[in-house]
Every structure is written in structure tokens, then in C-alpha cells.
Design goal:
By secondary structure, this protein is α+β, with helices and mostly antiparallel strands. The chain is built from three helices and twelve strands. The strands form three sheets. An eight-stranded antiparallel beta sheet has the order 1-4-5-7-10-9-3-2, with no helix packed on it. Strands 6-8 form a two-stranded parallel ribbon. Strands 11-12 form a two-stranded parallel sheet. The longest helix has 17 residues, at 2-18. The chain starts with a helix and ends with a strand.
Length: 181
């Protein structure tokens, strides 16, 4: 009986590992990573690694979310699939975003969404492939504050917040961190 249960469990794990959501990334000069695909290693796996800070997370079936820093850029940003540049773009050219809003998207043009803010601002970007919309909201995340120049980390939530701060570190700041638990 134990052996059958273990076999069934192993089969379920194999089936679950074959389910694969799309890997989606924000790219463009409005993001902290820029146009990583156009780098000298564009067809190399290192390009995918470079885009990790802008990877979207599937929060439910067909709905992806990302929170991070965006600013006004010459071209803004678009959302691309996996390692390529194919993906999702606004339905019209020069689509400005600010505050909160939403728009429909297409997959056949080369338009970009462009934040209107000239300094780095936090946004939550949500792509819904079920109703073909992209929505955005300017947010103020709760960040960690150092004590005497040290960031003390004692919970998983604080560690996640620190990771978020490091991924969005546009000023290339150093962090003095002490794990306390």
C-alpha cells in the first residue's frame, strides 16, 4: 500500500512539474533592466538571467503581476515572453501611463507603455491574458528601515522585502544586513 501511494505521489509530482505558465518579463528603457535582449549576449541564457528583476508572477490562471520601479524612458516598456521579444504591447503608439489605469493590448505591433514620471516610481503592473488588458497602479511599498545603518532580518516577510529592495536598487546602494532568526 505504501509503495502504491508513493508511486501515485511521484506521478502527481511529474504531472505538476509539466504544467508551465508563460514566463513574462517587462523590458525597455522605462525599466531598471533596460533592453536586455539587445545586449551582446542576446541569444544566450545570460540574457534571461539579466531580466529576472522584471519577471512577472502568475497570481492566478492567465493573470500576471509585477511590482517594481519604472520611469519615463525614450520608449517605455513592453512585456515579452520567455527569451524572445514577442509578447504584449499597447493598442496605440505613445501610450502614457501614470497613477492608476488600464488599457487593452495587442501582440502584433511594436508600441510601448511609457510612464510619465521622470524619476523612479513604484508601480504594480497586472497583465490579464483572459480579457487582454494591462492595468497599472502607482504604489508606495513598505520598505525596511535600517537601525544604525544595519537592516535586521528576522522574518520571511522581511527577507522578501529585502529581496524586493535589492532587485529594484537603481542607485546600486550597499546594504549591511544581519539575520537575527
Amino acid at each position: 500500500m505504501k509503495k502504491r501511494l508513493l508511486t501515485l505521489f511521484a506521478m502527481c509530482l511529474c504531472l505538476a512539474s509539466n504544467i508551465h505558465a508563460e514566463d513574462l518579463y517587462l523590458v525597455g528603457d522605462g525599466t531598471i533592466i533596460g533592453w536586455a535582449k539587445e545586449s551582446s549576449y542576446a541569444n544566450d541564457d545570460r540574457c534571461l538571467e539579466a531580466r529576472q528583476p522584471t519577471r512577472m508572477i502568475e497570481i492566478r490562471d492567465g493573470v500576471y503581476e509585477w511590482t517594481g520601479l519604472l520611469k519615463h524612458g525614450g520608449e517605455g516598456f513592453k512585456i515579452v515572453r520567455d527569451k524572445g521579444m514577442a509578447g504584449y504591447r499597447p493598442s496605440s503608439s505613445n501610450y502614457s501611463i501614470s497613477g492608476s489605469g488600464s488599457s487593452t493590448y495587442q501582440e502584433t505591433n511594436d508600441y510601448k507603455w511609457n510612464p510619465t514620471n521622470t524619476d523612479w516610481q513604484y508601480y504594480t503592473i497586472t497583465l490579464n491574458t483572459n480579457d487582454q488588458t494591462l492595468s497599472w497602479e502607482q504604489v508606495t511599498p513598505t520598505l525596511l528601515e535600517p537601525t544604525d545603518g544595519v537592516y535586521y532580518i528576522s522574518t520571511a516577510e522581511q527577507l522578501n522585502t529585502l529581496a524586493f529592495m535589492l532587485r529594484n536598487n537603481v542607485n546600486k546602494e550597499s546594504y549591511n544586513v544581519k539575520l537575527t532568526a
